[in-house]
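User: Hi! I have a protein structure encoded as tokens and I'd like to know what sequence might fold into it. I'm fairly new to this, so please keep things simple.
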């Protein structure tokens, strides 16, 4: 398992803090069990957010997999298909 990037740590931590504060304010929980459930839920959400943050390598790989730009012939046929659809719709 690779080490977390600074962005993953920042996004995950911010998610935990803000989610905990929001849920505590919205629910008005003041007893131990309620606060514990909220803290665990916020921690789980923070871990999920941190795991979904893309690393620079993943962003570069995703950009390399983007389809090539359409040729003018494809763009023209797509535009005419949209025009026909709007006339008949």
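Assistant: Happy to help. Inverse folding works backwards from shape to sequence: for each of the 89 positions I chose a residue that suits the local structure. Here it is:
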């Amino acid at each position: 398992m690779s080490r977390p990037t600074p962005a993953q740590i920042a996004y995950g931590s911010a998610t935990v803090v803000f989610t905990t504060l929001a849920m505590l304010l919205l629910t008005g929980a003041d007893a131990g069990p309620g606060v514990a459930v909220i803290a665990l839920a916020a921690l789980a959400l923070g871990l999920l957010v941190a795991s979904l943050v893309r690393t620079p390598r993943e962003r570069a790989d995703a950009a390399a997999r983007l389809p090539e730009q359409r040729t003018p012939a494809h763009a023209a046929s797509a535009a005419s298909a949209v025009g026909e659809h709007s006339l008949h719709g």
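A useful reference point when you look it over: The first helix runs from residue 6 to 27. Feel free to ask if any position seems puzzling.
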